[in-house]
Amino acid sequence: MRLKTTFSLLAGRSRRRSLGAALGVALLVVTTGAARGGILQIGNILTFSSGSTAGNPPGTWTLDDKSFTYLDQSGFVMTGTGGPESIKVVDSLIGNVHSLSLQNLGNLVPGGTYTLGYRVDVIPSSPYHLSTVALDTVHLVDTVTVYKDVYSTFSLFQSGTAGAGNLAALTSVNGSPAGPVPLAGDPTQVWVRDTIVLGQFGQLDGVSNTYTQAMVPEIDPGSAAPVLALVVGCLACVAQRRSRRAAV
Predict the structure, then answer these.
(1) Of 38, 55, 160, 188, which is the most exposed, with the fewest CB atoms less than 10 Å away?
(2) Which one-letter DSSP state was computed for residue 202?
(3) CA of 1: how far to CAs of 10, 63, 243, in Å?
(4) Cβ neighbours around 130 below 10 Å, total
(5) b or e along 66-81 (b: 16 or more beta carbons within 10 Å of the residue's beta carbon)?
(6) pLDDT in tens, 200-225
(7) Domains and CATH numbers, the chain
(8) pLDDT tens, 107-154?
(9) Cα 228–233–236 angle (5° rounding)?
(10) C-alpha span between 236 and 137 (Å, rounded)
């Protein structure tokens, strides 16, 4: 009788451990895509290059699970307090889109070319990778062309020209949106250059870069159903065995 009781206790513990593991998996599936959201006001390009968020080196700004690191620029004011342009990073409330916008560009002199290079990193602890990229602009006067090039390595970024991004090459003419286009290879780090080319009278107000992310591996919300079914089955099994023991 003592042996039988001991065996029953061990079996009960094993069932509880299995049930706990199933519940843990179900919780992971249901909550992995928890909503996030936030806005990070960086400032002008001079601030982008020299400032940072807490714990980062100069030039690196982190919002939630994405970091944006300044690499280079051309044509913008980088002396004194810098120019009037304004950089902002937004993480949407649904938690799958980040955007970096460059606004207040109405002071750029027509007939010039302006570039901004930066790197996008998904922090190592994040379950996401970069999925797509899109480009949009708000122009004021026609003859405005904006190129967005995304590269898979720093060396390609250094040698690349406008329209030559190996992961993505987007072009917006006079405010036309471009993309989204997929980023091959599920990258968690990319190098980006935005190139603004103004015609003789061209003027624009802002440039918006949008990055969509996906799970690694991608988890369909419907995939939670089999796990939840397993949990329900475990609960039913435990309840049935307890009922049998009570009857005995």
Answers:
(1) 55
(2) -
(3) 14, 62, 20
(4) 24
(5) bbbbbbebebbeeeee
(6) 999 999 999 999 999 865 444 554 44
(7) 38-215 (2.60.120)
(8) 999 999 999 999 999 999 999 999 999 999 999 999 999 999 999 999
(9) 130
(10) 57
